[in-house]
Amino acid sequence: MDLLIRIAGEAGQGVQTTGNLLVAAFARMGLHVFAIKSYMSRIRGGLNWFDVRIGDATLYSGRETADVLVALTDEARETLQPHVADGGATLFDAAPDEADAPEGCLCVPLTAIAKEKGGSAVMANAVAAGAVFALLGYDLSALTDYFGEAFAKKGEETVQANVACAEAGAERLGDQAGRLASPDPGGEAVSVATGTEAVGLAAATAGVKFATAYPMTPATGVLTVLAGAADEYGIVVEQAEDEIAAVNMVCGAVYAGVPALTMTSGGGFALMAEGVSLAGMHELPVVILLAQRPGPATGLPTRTAQQDLLFALHAGHGEFPRAIFAPGTPEQAYHLTRRALKTAHKFQTPVILMTDQFLADMVVDTPPLDAAPDPIDRQIAADAGQGYDRFAVTDSGVSPRAVPGGDAFVLLDSDAHTEDGHITEDLEAHLGQQDKRMRKLDAMTEKALAPDRYGPPDAGLLLLCWGSTYGPCREAVDRLRAAGTKAAMLHFGQVWPLKARAVRRAVGLEGDDARPPDRIVCVEGNQTSQFRTVLREAGVGVEAEPLVRYDGMPFTGEEIAERVQA
Predict the structure, then answer these.
(1) What ranges in 447-490 are assigned the alpha helix state H?
(2) Average model confidence (pLDDT) for the chain?
(3) In the predicted model, is pLDDT for residue 104 greater than 90?
(4) How sure is the predictor about 513, in pLDDT bands with cuts at 50, 70 and 90?
(5) Is the pLDDT reported for residue 77 higher than 80?
(6) Which one of 57, 272, 307, 499 is most buried, counting C-beta atoms within 10 A?
(7) Rounded to an integer, what distance in angstroms lies between the CA atom of residue 523 and that of residue 492?
(8) β-pairing, 519-524 with 461-466?
(9) Which percentage of the chain shows pLDDT scores above 70?
(10) Cβ-count burial 160-197 (b if 16+ within 10 Å, e if not)
(11) Which of 275, 296, 299, 298 is nearest to 287 (CA)?
């Protein structure tokens, strides 16, 4: 049992505030929650909406249709009412004296009630939330009790004004109260998190002490989270003048032994490419969060995409190893952020953590994320001293790493260099260093995460996905299985390097218990099915049909299931 509530209106009308109030209240009731925003790149106006899906079981994606539409403008009503499910309801912010209600709407003068009961139109969000609670037949106290926390900083008078607005909104529903069958609350409160919050918390607990970025949606939120955590975790947060400065600041920080992080989107990552190459030559544990959005150029700044995978894999001049991780949920984002930092320091090479607007903004109930400091091992050589060579040739490709200021003399240069870090034109020395760096890839491949499988081992249909498509694909598998199709999925939280044999075993193409699927479909948020190219580049040998979406909107489980069946 699940329902989707869609709050829609202009930027600046409180769409997000209403959504956040509902998310928090529903989570406190023990309902499972999945919420996502759709918004334009503008401060005021336009058409934005906030989807809040609630259920009595875990939810993994949004839905195409809404059961409840709260329309704050005529445009919202006209555009989105056709996407209200049969038997659903549209609450429209009508004028109090409006004689003729728009067809199919329940007119609730949200703004007028807010002015009357709260003294300000801004409290229309509380009126709307109260009306939604009444429509769903839920006890209003679950919402109003939360107001004490949500508006505590504004004083008790503001709290009570919002309570009065919510109660008036609920009363306005009259005999429509409890009209919609709703999921039963679970009783125990659940915790919720966004992908952005999970990345920020993971970085802070992992011991990141320096974070810098030039603001760029949808990566900026991580910088904001780290700034808010700066005092508690001892982090220096710097807004750089541009992305070139940001990546080079991180190179300097990790050279000095400080775990560091920078974050950007595609356009900013383009500017970072030379700095990524510098990190490759200096063998520095630089970690970059690449939060994708549609391109090219400025593209659609507030929409989602998975269009930068091949760019991330090949960005930079010359050849050097790197790892790429792509979480699919906030919980995965927490753990893979830590793994990205550990991998970078273990192998002394750049690591890229790929998210997107969908993952960054999604709000989902998740197990509580550990906020206790648990610093990663920086892999600093404890016994470096006289005779230390920063770039000593080793079988593993990983040289002992010391930091300046200790007993060892640390020398490095961006040019081709000898083992002790001096510039050289000796081609044999250059080959030795190049081969040394690339040998890291062998161990990185051996340590690569295998894809996670969901579904039976003998599935005839197998969906492949990476990053934020995890949830929609998982829901699609459940829908397909309910319809009689034996389906499963593989999700890749690490997309490079890939261990070809492990992937083939996971797909069912190798091993004593090999069960090759009849059909393999690769689900991606880009036009050219870039992950299929990565699979070929890794020598996996898996042929898959592409199923792509690149309009800037996220997949839903029902969409994937319907397209696969079609």
Answers:
(1) 470-482
(2) 95
(3) no
(4) confident
(5) yes
(6) 272
(7) 11
(8) parallel
(9) 99
(10) ebbbbbbbbbbebbeeebebbebbebbeeebebbbbbb
(11) 275
CB atoms within 10 A of CB 252: 13
Q: What DSSP letter does each residue of 183-242 carry, written as one string?
A: PPP-SS---EEEHHHHHHHHHHHTT--EEEE---TTTHHHHHHHHHTHHHHT-EEEE-SS
Tokens of 220: 């900026």
Contact 203, 261 (CB under 8 A): yes
Summarised one tens digit per residue, pLDDT across range 334-389 is 999 999 999 999 999 999 999 999 999 999 999 999 999 999 999 999 777 788 99
Query: Which pLDDT score, from 0 to 100, does residue 45 have?
Result: 87
Q: Which two tokens mark 380?
A: 């600093």
Domain 193-365 bears CATH identifier 3.40.50.970:
yes
Tell me if residue 404 falls in helix, strand or coil.
coil
Classify the phi-psi angles of 520: left when phi > 0, otherwise alpha if psi is within -120 to 50, otherwise beta.
beta
**pLDDT average, residue stretch 275-293:** 98
CATH topology identical between 2-176 and 193-365? no
Helix (H, G, I), strand (E, B) or coil at 326: coil
Residue 101 has pLDDT above 80, yes or no: no
The closest alpha carbon to 363, from 11, 62, 7, belongs to: 62
The structural domains of the chain, with segments of one domain joined by +, span 2-176, 193-365, 384-439, 452-565
Single out the residue of 165, 163, 151 nearest to residue 110, CA to CA.
165
**Residues 162 and 329 sit within 8 Å (Cβ to Cβ):** no
- CATH class as words, domain 452-565: alpha beta
User: Which segments of 57-181 does DSSP mark as H helices, in order?
Assistant: 74-80, 110-118, 124-136, 141-150, 156-172
Strands (E), 476-541: 487-492, 494-496, 519-524
**Alpha carbons within 13 A on the beta-carbon side of 319:** 11
- At residue 96, does pLDDT exceed 70? no
Give the CATH number of domain 2-176. Answer: 3.40.920.10
pLDDT at 99 over 60: no
**Three-state DSSP class for 143?**
helix
Neighbouring residues of 539: CB distance < 8 A, sequence distance ≥ 6:
500
**pLDDT band at 97, cuts 50/70/90?**
low
Q: Are 375 and 257 in contact (CB under 8 A)?
A: no
49: which strand partners? 8, 38
How high is the pLDDT of residue 125?
93
Please classify residue 141 by burial: count the beta carbons closer than 10 Å to its beta carbon, then call 0-12 exposed, 13-18 middle and 19+ buried. Answer: exposed
Distance CA 460, CA 487 (A): 6
10 Å Cβ neighbour count for 159?
Answer: 17
* pLDDT the model gives residue 18: 93
C-alpha–C-alpha distance, residues 400 and 388, integer Å: 8
170 SS3 class: helix
